[in-house]
Each structure stands twice: as structure tokens, then as C-alpha cells.
Amino acid sequence: MKKITIYHYDAFSHIPNRGNPAGIVITTANLSETEMQNIATYVRYNETAFFLPSKVADFKIRYFTPGHEVDLCGHATIAMVYALYSKKIIDHKKEVLIETKAGVLPIKIQRNRIGQLQVTMHQRPPEFKPFRGSIKSLARSLDITNDDIDSSLPIVYGSTGTWTLLVPIKRLEVFKRMNPKNTHFPFILQDMPKVSIHPFCLETYSHDCNMHARHFSSPYSGTKEDPVTGTASGVMGAYYLTYIHPEKSKKLVIEQGQEMGKRGEVVVQIQYEDEKPIVTITGTAVYVNKVEIDQEEIDQGLIQGKIQKQN
């Protein structure tokens, strides 16, 4: 009987059970799309990533939330590349190309000054679209008030590979009060009803960081909150240069996850080449544990909750 190993790595932290958990599946021979979705549904991390062969890059990654497939996921990419390098599958390389549904993206692998493995991921060029919905309803869905939203900055949909709604917040203390009603999101986000909501502010817990955020999932994804986001941090950095402080280049450190007890940090670098913005995110990861499941368990839905019980 076919065995599938699912690894648990935490991205954007070197401390286990902090940062953002990702399911990592490296042996995917003969796994169907339905089986991948079933595994992600039962694992119930925000994303589970699957390593696949590619004809146009070094390898391909597919990403599944418990509810559906997504084009790109930053934290699961960082976790996958960290896992492949640690397992000596790509440890002979310092740069790789990955194929995703958001395109072919370059990845760099290096160690920082204290020896930690760091993965740098290029993202798609940033895109922004205006939010035309009700700000009052948006605030209510987060259990905050209109006055908590910073009206001096625009609320926009943004993407560097995955769309989210960027909501500027005035003060850090507001984040502790947020209690999202995720099922309301599709009715408020009528232009893009399946996207997440990403409130952020310029006040931070750490003096070493530039921005703080939380990330509330679309109800279609099957999760409620993402502890530390990669693609949303990337587009948040692009937002900073577009709407807050235009510069030719900027390095930002984004903090997230404190309200969930999952603190992690994402380094975002934005620079212009030939008048085009290049966005990268950098982070580390850490191995936590693994579990093996049988093919029959996948097909019959018997694996629900096993990963959580191992944690």
C-alpha cells in the first residue's frame, strides 16, 4: 500500500511552533489533484505544498488550502525550498527556478551571518485595484470601527501572485481587538469575493520591524487566519513604496503572528529595474515533525486530525 509522508515545517521562524506552519509533501508520485486536495483538507494547515517535476523549471510546486488550490503561497514556498535543501535534494544549488501557477519564479538560497539558511523568493510584479465596497461593513466584519481605519491611505486589492485586500489601520492596539467574521467577506468584497483581508499598520511590537499585520482568510479557504504571510507581506511592501513613501528601493521587515502566539518575520525587498518594481521576500524555516498516511486513508477520509495530534 502506498505511503505518503507529510512533513510539518514552520516558515518565517527558526523556533518550532512559531511562524506559519506548512504541510510539505515531497514524494508525490501518482498523486492525483483530488488526492492532493484531500491531503490538504485533512491536514488543515493554511497551505500544503506538493513537490512535482517541471519541464520549464528546476521543479514545480502546487499549493492547496483546506478548501481549494491557490496559485502561489509565500510561506509554503520558503518551507518547501528549506526542506529540499535540508534533505540534500537541492543542496548543491544556490539558485533554482520554480514553476507555479503564478509563473516561473527565481529562488536564492544562502546563509546569513549567524549561519541560518535563508530563502529569498521573487514574486510577481505588484498590481493594485481600488476597493469600492462599504468601509463601514468592512470595519464591522473585523469587529472594529470606521475610526480605526486610516483614511489618509487607500484601501486596495493588491497582488504579487495572490490577491488580498490591504486595509491600513491607525494604531497597533486595534489588532488585539480584531475578531473577524470571515463568512461576511464575500458579500463585502464584491469585486473579488474569494480574497483574504490583510489589515496592517506602521506601529510595531519590535523596534527592528517596519510594519505589523494580520491576515484573515477567505471562508472558501477553509481556515480563519494565516499567522505569518509571505505573498501578502510582499504586496504590503509594494504598497509602502506606492502609497506611503515612494522610493527607488526599500528593505522592510514585516512582523506578524503576535496575536496568535506565532510571531514571525518576513524581510521584503523592493527595487526598481528598468522602471519595473522587483519584489522579493526572505525568510527561514524549521522542521517540526512528520506523519505517514496510507493511500487508503486518503481515499476514505481517515486521516483527519492526525497531523494536529502529532504537534
UniProtKB/TrEMBL annotation:
Matching SUPFAM superfamilies: Diaminopimelate epimerase-like
Pfam family membership, one: PhzC-PhzF
Keywords, alphabetical: Isomerase
Lineage: superkingdom: Bacteria
Protein's UniProt keywords contain Calcium: no
GO MF annotations in UniProt: isomerase activity
UniProt family annotation: Belongs to the PhzF family.
Protein name stated in the entry: PhzF family phenazine biosynthesis isomerase
Organism: Terrilactibacillus laevilacticus
